[in-house]
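Risk mitigation, structural track. In case the binding assays with adenosine-5'-diphosphate fail to produce interpretable data, a predicted complex structure has been prepared as a fallback.
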Amino acid sequence: MSASLIRFENVSKAFGSTVVIDDLNLDVRKGEFLTLLGPSGSGKTTTLLMLAGFEAPSGGTILVDGKRIDDLPAHRRGMGVVFQNYALFPHLTVAQNVAFPLQMRGVPRGEIARRVDAALDRVQLRHLSSRKPSQLSGGQQQRVALTRCLVFEPKVILMDEPLSALDKQLRERLQLEIRELYRREGLTVVFVTHDQSEALTMSDRIAVFNRGAIAQIGTPADIYDRPANRFVSEFIGETN
Ligand code: ADP
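Fallback model:
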């Protein structure tokens, strides 16, 4: 049983009078691939944004390695973020895109070059390092975004629907690649999707969200074979 790396304790989030997350308790274990799965509007992204430090909870506490997240400056939280709209800089090459966050942080030039090369090697993109994003396919762009996140050596990678803009074939290939990268690098991943099959294929555990609360959390087999309630059985039943 792995230790808990992140803990949500009685976390709530409201926008105005609308409660979006209601008394959420959730552990992310070190080294696991945890997926937040649920229909649109169920609070998955808001949960991820609070973890990334982009949104503050309205109530409750988020702990990272036992420390309150709001006591940690953003660069000490160890979170790497990959979103659906990968937002690469169009005027920079692949290598410059990956190097950019390291430059911003004042990492010495020689070390940047070494880390960028190593990161591009790991995802087999080094041969594309002098291309511009517009010269890459959607899948390659998403891989560059993932690489830019990996150069930080984050404790946790947060991914919000990273594959939903891609066609089915590419999506399935990248699902395998991300899963393989996760395994090889010993990462901890929190992955958001509304796609039941994607969650069932990729995850160690799945937290099924319904209206800002967790309807069930468990392994894909738990969720698929032993849904805890009607919401989960119907939502998973939509898988084809
Ligand atoms: P999901 O990722 O599951 O689709 P979200 O976390 O994006 O769900 O959204 C949950 C609910 O919170 C939705 O009803 C959404 O409209 C609302 N919401 C999200 N962000 C804001 C915001 N900045 N202001 C007001 N409402 C928001």
